C-alpha cells in the first residue's frame, strides 16, 4: 500500500502531498456541482408551482442525465481529439452562457417550462463530459495509487455543494426570485473557468477524427468482455435507475407531505449533502483498497433502504435523518464508482471507458420517467418507496454478476 493511502498518516500531511492542479480541478467540480444543485432545487420548486405535476418535475431533472446515455461513450472518445483542459473550460463557459440567458428571460418575466427543459439538457451535456474530461485529468495529476483518495476528496466537494446549493437556491428563490439564482450561477461559473485555465497539466489530442466511432465501439466491447468492468457498470445502472431518481421527488414530498416552503425544501435537500460530505471525508481518511468493492455495493444497498425510509417519513425530522443516511451511503458509491472503473480500465483507454461509465449513469432517465409517471398516479411518497423496493430486488437478483467486483 502506498504511503498516501495509509490511514495512519495525519490528514493535513496527506493534503500537503496533493498537487495544486488537483485542487484547481477539485474547485471546478465543486462549483459546477453547487450550481447544478442550486438550479435543480429552484427549477423543481418553480416548475411544480406552475404545473402541479410531479411527472414534469421529474422530467426536468431527468433531462440533466439524458445526454450521458445518448452521448457518454462518444464523448469519451471525442475528448481525446482535443486538449482536455481547454475543452473543459469551453464546456463550463457554455453552462455559464445558459444560466445567463435564463436570468435574462426570468428578468423580463417570460420564463416557461420549456426554457427549464432546454437548459437542463444543455447542463446535462456538460455533466456528461465530467468523467472523460475533468476526472480523467485528475487521475493523471494524482496517479494510480492515489486515485481513491482523489475521488473521495472530489466526491466530498461535490457533496458539500449539496449542502450549500439547495439552501442558497431556496433562500434566493424566496427572497429575490429565480433570476437572482441564475445571476449567482453565472458568477460562480466565471470563477470555475478561471481555475480551469490555471491548470498546468496538459493532456493533448491523441486521436484523429476518423477514429472516434471506432474507438467508441472498441471501448464498449472491452467493457462487455471484462467481468469486473461489466459488474461495475451493472451496479451503476441499478443505482441510476432505481435510486438516484428519488432526488427529483424531494421538492414534491417536501411540499405536499411535509408541508415545507421553498426555504424548508432547500434545507431538507441539503441534509443529504451533509451526510455525503461527512461520508466522503471518512472515506478519504480510512478507506483502503480491500474495502473498495464492499463500499461500492454496500453503499447502493443502504441508499435504497434509506430512500424508502425518507418516502415513508411522517415529519421533517425523520425525513431529514433518512436523507442524512442516503448522503453517507451515496458518498461510498460515488467515490468508488469512478475509482474502480479508472483502476480496472486499460491505461490507454481510460478516457473512453470513463465515457462508457457516463452512458451507464445516463440510464437514469429511465428511472426518472418511471418514477414521475408512477408518482402522478399513486403519489410521490408511495412511488418513491415502490421504486426503492424494486431496486433492492434488482440488486439481489444480479448478485451472481456483481460479486465479481
Topology record:
Layout: H1 11-16, H2 20-51, H3 54-62, H4 66-78, H5 84-107, H6 113-128, H7 131-142, H8 147-175, H9 178-197, H10 212-225, H11 227-243, H12 250-256, H13 262-286, H14 292-312, H15 316-344, H16 350-361, H17 364-378, H18 380-397, H19 399-402
Helix pairs in contact: 2-3, 2-7, 2-8, 2-9, 3-6, 3-17, 4-6, 4-10, 4-16, 5-6, 5-9, 7-16, 8-9, 8-13, 8-15, 10-11, 11-14, 11-15, 11-16, 11-17, 11-18, 12-13, 13-15, 14-15, 14-18, 17-18
Describe this protein's structure:
By secondary structure, the chain is mostly helical. It is 80% helix and 0% strand. It has helices at 11-16, 20-51, 54-62, 66-78, 84-107, 113-128, 131-142, 147-175, 178-197, 212-225, 227-243, 250-256, 262-286, 292-312, 316-344, 350-361, 364-378, 380-397, 399-402. It is globular and about 50 Å long.
Helical stretch tally? 19
Distance between the termini: 19 Å
Largest sheet: none
Number of strands: 0
Q: Radius of gyration, Cα only, in angstroms?
A: 20 Å
Name the poorly predicted regions: 1-9
Would you tell me the overall average pLDDT? 80
Oligomer: single chain
What structural class do the secondary elements suggest?
mainly alpha
Q: Which word captures the global form?
A: globular
